[in-house]
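Dear Dr. H.,

I hope your travels went smoothly. While you were away I took the liberty of generating a structure for the chain from your last submission, since the lab meeting agenda had it listed for discussion. I wanted you to have the full record in hand beforehand rather than looking at slides cold. The sequence, exactly as received, is reproduced here:
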Amino acid sequence: MIFDISQLRQVMRNAFRGKLKELGFYPLQKSVWVCPYECQDEIALLRDFFGLNEKEIRLIRAEDIEDDSYLRKIFKLG
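The corresponding predicted structure, in token form, is as follows:
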């Protein structure tokens, strides 16, 4: 999942990041977060709650991330 929330809405952006952490997402980069589980419903809920559109939050489904051993440890996926 990637997001691009304007610097002008910094409070909202920080609150959004906090919700991602609560849901178990992990920051791959500053605005790129990963989760190994289906999360389409959660992203839709966050999008609605924060009043964001598909350009501000984009859900990407990836089957593989190179050198993901550290992510497997974080998510306890063996």
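Two observations you may find useful: The chain has one domain: 2-74. The chain has a mean pLDDT of 95.

With kind regards,
E. W.
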